[in-house]
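Data card: per-record layout.
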Amino acid sequence: MPMQAYRASTAHITSNLSLWAAIFGVVTVVLCIARYVIGGGDHLGDLAALSGMIFGTLIMMKSQEGYVAPELDETAA
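The structure for this 77-residue chain is written out next.
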């Protein structure tokens, strides 16, 4: 049962990469602004960094969508 839930959640995220990337981009910007306005919010900075890392990972996954690796020539080695 746990693997079924895991596969369902990853399928949901990979089918909606643009939506999730936009959500985490907005969350990152909001947390950065809140960190700037509040000033001493160390936890807000940590959350902004975390959401920024997730945002970057989603952007990298989106850029690899549809990529087909070239065939390797076995005799060339």
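Known properties of this structure: The helical segments are 2-15, 17-38, 42-63. The radius of gyration is 18 Å.

See the next section for split statistics.
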